[in-house]
Specification:
This protein has 294 residues and is an alpha/beta fold. It is built from 13 helices and 5 strands. Strand 3, helix 10 and strand 4 form a beta-alpha-beta unit.
């Protein structure tokens, strides 16, 4: 974690971009080789990385030279190094910390929404009071929870809305009787399943067909699939046919693997709203208008 954090800070200071996989593989191989010779596992260090960049270092040779000079100091100058006051070293580290703190970036975050400020404050406080690794873990966890909350609020399950500029808008289509159209806007994951259940539970479902548009659903997880299964079971118990429209191929793949496609029925999962409406006409036993049939 500290190595990747060092790399990110180095990127921001140098304008370069590191390769995370290369860094981790190289460091893992070096640590395995180190312990074979009685060495101690090492990691990238933020302070020394920042110092190298401030000294205009631009290649891996700077890290190698750092190791060489450190070995020479330990072998030759150790009696003199122990006489350097810790207060002096502390002053050097304070200057380095200030230079790598990116005060302007912190100021911009302080003008961001409150959740971002909370993550910054918590991570900063834990870094000082506990340690860096624990602070990063808590910060990532907190940011993930806040992100899930944001996505949950953004995702909507709503009855199809009139939109004169949408060529697929259902207000331009002639729907059969006893049919209603709902649309999911956003990812269908565990944070949104209750919203799906509650919205459709409050709706006055028709006795024949319900079209659920999923063209704006970029991803789905196991909880989302389970929510659709529960919806399907509830509709079947009321004699209502569920028709899915605009399901993306990657989501359809999960439906096939879990057996949901078989339970819904191949004919009830269609790529376009026109085909969904035609299927609804078949379900209710009416003839579809020629304007819909292609």
């Amino acid at each position: 974690i500290e190595s990747l954090l060092s790399a990110v800070i180095a990127d921001s200071m140098s304008g370069d971009r590191h390769k995370s996989n290369t860094e981790l593989v190289a460091q893992g191989a070096a640590n395995i080789a180190s312990v074979m010779f009685g060495g101690i596992a090492a990691t990238g260090a933020i302070a020394r990385t920042a110092t190298n960049i401030k000294a205009k270092a631009f290649s891996p040779v700077s890290g190698i030279m750092h190791a060489v000079w450190l070995a020479l100091f330990l072998a030759i100058l150790a009696p003199f190094i122990v006489k350097v006051p810790l207060a002096v070293l502390s002053g050097v580290l304070m200057v380095i910390a200030w230079n790598m703190s990116e005060i302007r970036h912190i100021r911009s975050i302080m003008r961001s929404p409150r959740p971002d400020r909370i993550v910054l404050f918590v991570t900063f406080t834990l870094t000082v009071l506990v340690d860096l690794n624990f602070a990063v873990q808590v910060g990532i966890s907190l940011a993930s929870i806040l992100f899930i909350a944001k996505i949950t609020n953004v995702t909507e399950v709503r009855e199809s809305v009139v939109d004169g500029y949408d060529k697929d808008a259902t207000d331009k289509k002639t729907l059969p009787q006893d049919t209603v159209v709902y649309e999911i806007m956003g990812p269908l994951f565990f944070g949104i399943t209750d919203k799906l259940k509650d919205t459709l539970k409050l709706a006055k479902l028709p006795p024949k067909a319900l079209i659920l548009r999923m063209r704006n659903v970029p991803m789905i997880d196991a909880a989302g699939i389970h929510a659709i299964e529960e919806l399907l079971h509830g509709l079947k118990s009321k004699g209502v046919t569920l028709i899915l429209s605009g399901v993306k191929p990657e989501i359809r793949h999960f439906f096939d693997k879990t057996g949901l496609t078989e339970r819904i029925g191949e004919a009830n999962i269609v790529p376009h709203i026109d085909e969904a409406i035609i299927r609804a006409y078949e379900v209710v036993g009416q003839e579809a208008p020629m304007c819909i049939i292609r």
